[in-house]
From TrEMBL:
It catalyses: a phosphate monoester + H2O = an alcohol + phosphate. Zn(2+) binds at residues 59, 304, 308, 347-348, 459. This is Alkaline phosphatase. The lineage of its organism: Eukaryota, Fungi, Dikarya, Ascomycota, Saccharomycotina. Binds 1 Mg(2+) ion. GO terms for biological process: organophosphate metabolic process. The keyword Transmembrane applies. Its cofactor is Mg(2+); Zn(2+). The active site is at residue 107. It is found in: Membrane. GO terms for molecular function: alkaline phosphatase activity; metal ion binding.
């Protein structure tokens, strides 16, 4: 009797069926492994998809800065209480900010935590606690074929952008930072686009606006190496919003800082949002045909300065200018097919800002006055310069100086009508003492009247917010994990943000660290023996 499986046709069918089943199982295993590994960064074995990483920093912005700016905007624009900032809609967690040597970090250690994913000491730029250079996410991504950019409102050689693109023992080595940012590193050039202030450390101190000690003109050198260079609003506009950019681009739009947004003349300086949009358009266009996207750092640098100055009128405008930039970046992410992640956080809080202040011995009323900030139309920094310039006027009588202070500065610029003659006299005394004393006196007049509190001219250790957004379901599933070194939901150590970017892109920071061993990073000459007090004077 014939067995069923003895029939050759049946056997063929059976074999075919088994083969089909095995193929299906194999296919299932491959597919499930692929999708599992793309969810789980620790198991990322497949090549990551094309993606853009947009890392945004609000230097010195603590949670109180948000409350202050939000209430200010609602008051100014007559908005309802549920009309919140764009940032508010994307909060995902908060970050613990201490450095390796202090509970209160500076911007250098704060940015190195993001860029190298490690804790270092206050003042460290892309070096570890033993002063060994550490590979950054920007460098690692550049070596993998991504394009890279830095966009700031302060000096491009300042701590935050420097910690992504340079390696020096102390943040004040800005001449050396500038050289490295233009490519004088064992890695070659790692930055494709620079937009911000800070021409000073690219130009010799023998020409106006220059401050390099070694007489090199890095701008001329960069142009000779085919960087395109823009140094003013007109040239910035010729970039046509990023559509007319030839990379690498060196955009140094001010000798040092770009003015505070409250003082900014839009005919002379672009806003942070304009700079960010231009950079995103340029980088997106330049990576159009690449299988790699770009990394960009965008910093609202001067929220920190307003905190150091204890200037609430300047700070609310800085935060709102950043919020506009954040909105523009979100719109970019929603307009591109490339998987894009936006992370926005602060390196630390500055000023110990609180949105209430007891200004009399009697128990305080529960309020603060945003209209005082609205009435003030310039920063303390701007008014200090204006007063000290006026003071230089030849044959200026004490009476006309006092009248200038009263009418032009206090009434017109600061919008204060309830001043006392003692305050006017104090402004004059402070102007004789020092620029710093004058600055602090003017800002205190606004702070007390608005009942805004400050506890320090330095930094504080309060946790800062983390905001995030992605146009990709895959990336969102990673972002919205709570565990340390996985996603960014909840409370995290600042270095986890660096690790997040490293893991998401699958780059290898250690490989870059190995390549950086021979980079020049120690200070030379007289300042090499700089003492702690000098370093402190540079610690912003
Ligand atoms: C600059 O560009 C020109 C023209 O494309 C090219 O011939 C030259 O080699 C480039 N120089 C450098 C230093 O890259
Ligand atoms: C584009 O940039 C070049 C310089 O790189 C400039 O000469 C030209 O005028 C720009 N075009 C526009 C439309 O601004
Ligand atoms: C703001 O300025 C207006 C117009 O000068 C003035 O009437 C008002 O008192 C000022 N408000 C505050 C809080 O100083
Ligand atoms: Zn900072």
């Amino acid at each position: 009797m014939e067995k069923h499986n003895g029939n050759p046709a049946r056997q063929r069918k059976l074999r075919f069926g088994i083969a089909l089943l095995l193929t299906a199982i194999a296919a299932f295993l491959v597919i499930s492994h692929l999708s599992f590994s793309s969810f789980c960064p620790q198991h990322q074995t497949s090549k990551p998809k094309k993606q853009n990483v947009i890392f945004m920093v609000t230097d010195g912005m603590g949670p109180a800065s948000l409350s202050l700016a939000r209430s200010f905007k609602q008051h100014r624009d007559g908005l309802s209480i549920d009309d919140i900032l764009t940032l508010d809609k994307h909060i995902i967690g908060n970050s613990r900010t201490r450095s390796s040597n202090s509970l209160v970090t500076d911007s250098a250690a704060g940015a190195t935590a993001f860029s190298c994913a490690l804790k270092s000491y206050n003042g460290a730029i892309g070096v570890d606690p033993s002063k060994n250079p550490c590979g950054t996410v920007l460098e690692a991504m550049k070596l993998e074929g991504y394009l890279t950019g830095l966009v700031v409102t302060t000096r491009i050689t300042d701590a935050t952008p420097a910690a992504f693109s340079a390696h020096v023992d102390y943040r004040w080595q800005e001449d050396l930072i500038a050289e490295q940012q233009l490519g004088e590193t064992p890695l070659g050039r790692t930055v494709d686009l620079i937009l911000g202030g800070g021409r000073c450390h690219f130009l010799p101190n023998t020409i106006p606006g220059g401050c390099r000690a070694d007489q090199r003109n890095l701008v001329e050198e960069a142009i000779a190496k085919n960087w395109s260079y823009v140094s003013d609003r007109e040239l910035f506009d010729s970039l046509d919003g990023g559509k007319n950019v030839s990379l690498p681009l060196l955009g140094l739009l001010a000798p040092t800082d770009i003015p505070y947004d409250i003082d900014r003349d839009s005919k002379v300086y672009p806003s942070l949002a304009e700079q960010a949009k231009t950079a995103l358009t340029a980088l997106s266009k330049a990576t159009e045909d690449s299988d790699k996207g770009f990394f960009i750092l965008i910093e609202g640098s001067r929220i920190d300065h307003a905190g150091h100055h204890n200037d609430p009128a300047a700070q609310v405008r800085e935060v709102l200018a950043y919020d506009d930039a954040f909105k523009a970046v979100l719109e970019f992410a929603d307009s591109t097919d490339v998987e894009t992640v936006i992370i926005s956080t602060s390196d630390h809080e500055t000023g110990g800002l609180v949105t209430a202040r007891q200004v009399s011995p009697s128990y305080p009323d529960y309020l603060w006055y945003p209209n005082v900030l609205l009435n003030s139309s310039h920063s303390g920094e701007y008014l200090t310069k204006k007063i000290l310039t006026k003071k230089q006027t030849k044959e200026l009588s004490p009476e006309s100086f006092l009248s200038f202070i009263e009418k032009e500065i206090v009434q017109e610029d600061m919008g204060i009508n309830d001043y006392t003659s003692k305050e006017i006299a104090e402004i004059q005394v402070s102007a004789d003492a020092s620029a710093e004393k004058l600055l602090y006196y003017l800002n205190n007049m606004i702070s007390v009247r608005s009942q805004t509190g400050w506890t320090t001219h330095g930094h504080s250790a309060v946790d800062v917010n983390i905001y995030a957004y992605s146009n990709s379901k895959r990336i969102n599933e990673i972002l919205y994990q709570r565990e340390a070194y996985a996603g960014l939901l909840g409370n995290h150590e600042n270095i986890e943000i660096g690790t997040f970017m490293e893991t998401l892109t699958g780059v290898n920071l250690e490989k870059v660290t190995d390549m950086l061993k021979d980079i020049k990073h120690h200070p030379e000459g007289k300042r090499a023996s700089v003492n702690g007090a000098d370093i402190h004077a540079n610690a912003y």
